[in-house]
Write a structure and sequence with these properties.
hpI Integrase, Chain A, 10 strands, DNA polymerase, domain 1, single chain, 401 residues, 15 helices, elongated, four-stranded antiparallel sheet, alpha+beta
Length: 401
């Protein structure tokens, strides 16, 4: 009696036995090489339905597993439904637990949730989880399929991030017996690289460019419409930009800085977190830095004068130092795409406010400050500074003493 091969959606299976349907019943068809050239089949006594196809496919993989491990029962007795059916179905379930990739991720995410920062929670929900849903990959064992989909549909850097998190989720699943076997994601993310690992060239401003950027903000009056100036004056952000250049801090750290973080004599700043703007528009304060550290920064006279001149007479410790023109926390995305792009691009294209950090680090090392000290000021390491921040192009004019 002829039979027809059954394709299982989402599974790219290759082995020495095949799932088929004959007379509307599911069967397993074995390779002739297993039986000296003879064709053998095994009836599963299951009607051809989507649910039964999943059961049958799990059993197929369990039999293939026996073949691979050299423990295949050529009599087929132990695979027949009437022989220890409950025990065998339990074995199939043990070998290949019925959990989807998304379910595994969700369980892992909920387990970790209480120990994560709100910004990390938002990132994982809006990036990793979204990519898993879009991929359409059903099984957590389909690591190669997930990798291929990610490489095709997103950046190598994002693919690396997603695979790193799924690797952690699978490890956790093994520990809690939600999945079985070897971790197919182990080492997979290491084969990929982040953008910053490829494009490591820093982008610092020269002293003249730095001065031009600061003056551009100081002198901005608004938008000229041939009759007068309208709109917001970006001069409002001048001290914020100066602060970025003079401290080398991350923009979100400056945005979240409070008057309680400044010593009463303006000689010391304590950086302990910042404010991030989530994609849903919510502003979230984080504790500690990107590297989970709290640090103190010494202020030179110029920085002391700036802070002293802008401090209100009446102020609370939790009041933000730098505000938007509307008196709210600065939205980094809006600032970058509007004020920064409009005023800075004519001076030096393709920069971001983070280039102020490159500039500060480059200037300090060029002046002879020990890189270890600069690293401590900026919450970094000497290796990271040399690789990602220190712009040697901007010290090419300096000659040996």
């Amino acid at each position: 009696m002829p039979w027809k091969k059954v394709e299982i959606e989402g599974h790219d299976y290759q082995g020495q036995c095949t799932l088929g349907v004959q007379r509307e019943k599911l069967i397993i068809v074995f390779s002739r090489t297993l039986f000296g050239g003879k064709q053998k089949t095994l009836s599963l006594n299951l009607s051809d339905t989507p649910a039964n196809r999943t059961i049958a496919f799990n059993k197929l993989r369990a039999i293939q597993n026996d073949i691979d491990l050299g423990r295949f029962d050529a009599t087929l007795e132990q695979y027949k439904p009437q022989v220890k059916q409950k025990d065998y179905l339990q074995l199939v379930s043990d070998l290949y637990p019925d959990i989807s990739l998304l379910s595994l991720w969700e369980k892992y995410f909920e387990y970790k949730r209480l120990s994560l920062k709100e910004t990390t929670i938002h990132y994982l929900k809006t990036s990793v989880e979204n990519y898993l849903k879009k991929s359409g990959i059903k099984s957590p064992y389909e690591a190669l399929e997930l990798r291929e989909w990610l490489i095709t549909h997103t950046t190598q850097s994002m693919a690396k991030r997603v695979l790193t998190h799924i690797n952690a989720a699978f490890k956790w699943g093994l520990k809690h017996k939600l999945v079985k076997g070897l971790n197919p994601y182990e080492g997979m993310a290491n084969e990929l690289v982040h953008n910053y690992q490829v494009e490591t060239k820093p982008n610092a401003f020269t002293p003249k460019e730095k001065e031009a950027v600061i003056n551009a903000f100081l002198n901005h009056k608004g938008n000229w419409n041939k009759r007068g100036y309208t709109g917001y004056s970006y001069r409002h952000y001048a001290n914020f930009v100066k602060f970025l250049f003079f401290t080398g801090c991350r923009p979100n750290e400056a945005i979240g800085l409070r008057w309680g973080d400044i010593s009463t004599d303006f000689k010391k700043i304590t950086f302990d977190g910042g404010i991030y703007q989530l994609t849903n528009g919510k502003a979230v304060r984080t504790k500690h830095s990107k590297n989970n550290r709290k640090r103190e920064f010494p202020c030179n006279l110029e920085l002391q004068e700036i802070l002293s001149s802008i401090k209100p007479k009446e102020v609370n410790e939790d009041d933000l130092i730098f505000l938007s023109p509307k008196g709210k926390n600065i939205n980094y995305g809006n600032f970058s795409s509007n004020a920064w792009k409009r005023l800075v691009d004519p001076i030096k294209p393709n920069t971001t406010p983070y280039c102020c950090r490159d500039t500060f680090i480059t200037e300090q090392i060029a002046k002879g400050v020990n890189p270890a000290i600069v690293a401590k000021w900026c919450d970094s390491s000497t290796a990271t500074i040399e690789k990602h921040y220190f712009d040697s192009l901007n010290i090419s004019h300096i000659l040996p003493q």
